[in-house]
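Q: For a teaching session next week I want to show students how multiple molecules come together into a single three-dimensional assembly. I've collected the sequence lines for a complex. Could you give me the predicted structure tokens for the whole thing so I can convert them for display?
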Amino acid sequence: MVLFAFVACATVENKKCLEINDHLKSENRLLQKRLSLLQRENSVYKQENLQYKKNLDTKSAEVEKLESELRSIRERFEKDIALWEKKYENLREKNMILERESSEKIQELTRLNRQLEDKLGGDIRRLAEESQKKDETFGEEREQLKKDFARREFDRLKQIEDLKKSISELQRQNAEMEAKINDFILGQEEARRELKEKDARIQELEAMVASLRKAVEEEKRSEKGAKP
Amino acid sequence: MLLLCALCVAFPQAAPAKKRMSLLLTGNLEGRFSLDEENQEQNDPLLLLGQSIVRERKTRRIDIYLDLGNAFYPGALSKYSYGSIMYDFFQYFDCSATLISSSDVIIGVDNLAFLQEEKKTRLLSANIVRDGRTLYDPVFEHTIDGDTVAFIGISSQRVLFDIAEKSVYRLTLEDEKTALRRSVDLLKGRGVKHIVLLSGLDIEENVRLLKSVKEIDLVLCGGDGAGRLHGKKMNRVDFSDGRAIVFLQKRRGYYLLDLSLDERVSAGKLRFMPLQFINTRDRSYRQFLNRLSIWKRKFKEEENTLITAAAEESVIDNRRVAHLLRDRFRSEISIVGSNTVDRTVLKGDIKRFQLYRMINDEYTIFVYDITGAELKRLAKFSKRALITGYDAGKVQGYPVSDTRQYRVSSTQRVFDMVKGRLKREIPYANTWMNITEVLVDDLKDEKMLFRDDYGYLDRRFRMTVDLFISNFFDYSVISRKEEEPVPPGKPDITYRRWGMEDKIDLTVYNRYHQFILTPYIYYIEEEVHDGEKQYLQNLLRGTFFYNVNLDYIVRPYHKSQCDTVARDVDGLRPTIVRETFGANILTTGAFFRIEGNIGAGFEKQVHDPVDDPIYGVEAILKLQVTFLKLFTYSLSVDTFLAKRELNAGEVDHFRSETENGLSFALNSFLSLSLKHKWFYLYRKEYDDRYENSQFLATLDIKTDFKIY
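A: Of course. Below is the structure for the complete assembly, covering every listed component.
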């Protein structure tokens, strides 16, 4: 019985120990897992941090470089600004002088301009008057030319009328001749010859008429071209 | 005023426009980052996903990004970082919440909770409970144009906590309906009307939940939620009341889902978007890319460490790993899950990351004992697991005994499956090592993993000890006057009677050899009041049995048996030895076991007095039939037929021991038995026949131990 009790107690105790042991092993395993996670995460973050640090250093160096560049640029700019300011002053003075000079010049030019304007006004007036006169003269000339032309036209027309009359006369004569031809059938050869002569004469006259007409037309054209 | 009224009548107020919410959904990402930095932007599936998420955020109105589970495991890099890199992925790409699923907890629930601290991405599970309180956020809420939509996370019942976490944090997986009801009531109390469930449950369980919890408008499944109905994949299940279950089936991409917020939340069209390379300069993406690259370098640095070198090519698969577990933990059986090892060819330098890639079960290895009957039951359901060490009803070449214990090694995940199948609590020993650690240890040292022949495991010697104890004690005290008559049927003298029939089978065996040493005592002593002792039974027997365990039904054996007396009789200790060689036949079935020996040899009395040997034939038959689970009928016949001289014509010696028994098992080691023993001996030289017939009703203790 005692042995049983002892064994039972020992078993209970042992079971409890085993439970505690198991619990500790469980905790140990979990902590190991957590530790691994933390170590690995930490290592990655460290590396990432280093990268960022490196980047930051590079950027800082760049910033420094840029700052020194900025400083030198600023200095240069300051010098430039001083120089430009000096130049500006000079230019301003020059400008003032020039302004003054130009004011005087402007006054002079204004005066000259006024004189020129006056002169030009006189000239214009004179020229206007001359032009008016020329216009008047030209009107008279044109009137005369018109008259001449009308007269010449009248003459030519008269000549044409005369020629027309002579043509009609010749035509009448021709008709008479033709009648005579009819009358003198027997003397056909003679008549033909005479007719030929008459025809030749008619042709000459027609050529003359044509040349006259041409001359009249040319005169007409020349008159038209002469009109302003 | 009249005009205004007229206008109001003529143009009634338009119904308010439905509010909309756009979701980007992922599931089963499994932390599968590529391990190479080179061209990772074009090749890493999770970077491609990240690029797509960035694009979706820039080009569309994505209100929230949700992950539906199994995001952290078994990707090698995620495993190595204990989920940290995957959590960074969610953080950088602005994932609002992810559902905790069965694979995720392998990373460690505690580690995940730690990773969540001070992060925007929330881990969701309403039914993972620690000390009565939810470990993660049960709900994630998002407000859009004044309307709040709540997303409740319910983890799958397949979630299996690491035994260490379970023990330290007292984690439990609460019934999903209870957990959901609690969260819904909480939300209702706060006036939240729109509730969406992110579920890791299968389709039937989701339907059951939707039926019982009417407040749920929509269920989204994508991690553990398989969405299989009668073996067919489902994309969506719509209910007549407008509610729906949506499943994300495809991988290597993401889904876009538009929700309409009306009286209920209703799901619009679900669009799958495959991954493609998109060049992006997004700041978050670049920052994540930088961190991922560091993790990859770190992983390679640490995991690129050489473990060993393999001269020849070896294909590592479930079978090899299972054999290695048998070797490492001296178990007869090893069970590994069907997807434990990604089949990998190892040759040349073997590095740690290769092992990281190929192992998909990080749970620690348990060693436990199950009975032969349970082993047979498990073998019938071995589709999801590979059982090694058990082949065609045999273990180490011997038929499995239903009642004997067999040692099994498996991971906690498989153990949980075994426990579920056998429907009982199984005591176990935690080795505190997982498969990867076992592989690393082995590759550093013995390299058993590379062996092509694991037959040596069956050639390992084991020992069993079977105890059969059947004792009785009878002490009868008579008090009477000499002249007083004895009442009918009562003893007339004081006596003390006690006896025992005890046997121990010490069996040492391996695949080919079996040695059985059996001390046996059958002793009954009666002592009357005057001190006179009588030995009713006085047998002390030692048997040494050896057989060669060939694959055939018939196996050669050798038996040495020595019979003597437990107590000297008249100062003498007669001793008979029997030496036989022969053939052993063993066959077993579901309910029976038959073993027979036929051999030839000699029997010789070697002491008190010494006699000449007799030569003969031995025939032994042992039959055991179990019926109605608790009843066992057994028959044992042991005969020896011999002649004094080999050339003699007639048989002059015959010995037979027969035992018939019927036992009723009270429990695994106690049984009530009715036995009939019959002993017959014929010796021609004495022309004598000796018979002893005996009926016994006993309470037997039978127990066995195995030394693995």
